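Why should sequence recovery work at all? Because a backbone constrains its sequence more than one might expect. Tight turns favour small or flexible residues, buried strands favour hydrophobic ones, and helices have their own preferences. The token representation captures these environments compactly. In the example below, the structure is given first.
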């Protein structure tokens, strides 16, 4: 499984890279702030929402600390997706937040 740390992610965000970030946390966690531009798909809903994702795009998967996103990455990789797990998750992320 590919991984990146928050320093790498912040560098990509600062460079205005076109990123596809999926936040797999629950609704109450997402309400506390998300990485700007991230798409919220709670971990338990990924199988039913696969049609919303494109196997041609790379995705960065994030959760609170990295465990649930690692599970999501394993599942999505098995479905043919190019995914990268954000190590340390939102607990390690100290960049800008977006509230939805």
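From this structural description, the recovered sequence reads:
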């Amino acid at each position: 499984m590919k991984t990146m740390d928050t320093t790498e992610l912040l560098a990509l965000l600062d460079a205005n890279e076109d990123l596809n970030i999926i936040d797999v946390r629950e609704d109450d966690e997402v309400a506390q702030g998300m990485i700007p531009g991230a798409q919220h798909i709670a971990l338990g809903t990924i199988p039913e929402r696969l049609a919303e994702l494109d196997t041609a795009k790379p995705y960065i998967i994030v959760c609170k600390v990295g465990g649930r996103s690692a599970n999501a990455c394993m599942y999505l990789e098995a479905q043919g997706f190019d995914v990268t797990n954000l190590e340390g998750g939102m607990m390690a992320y100290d960049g800008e937040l977006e509230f939805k």
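A few observations help interpret the result. Helices lie at 6-14, 27-30, 67-78, 89-92.
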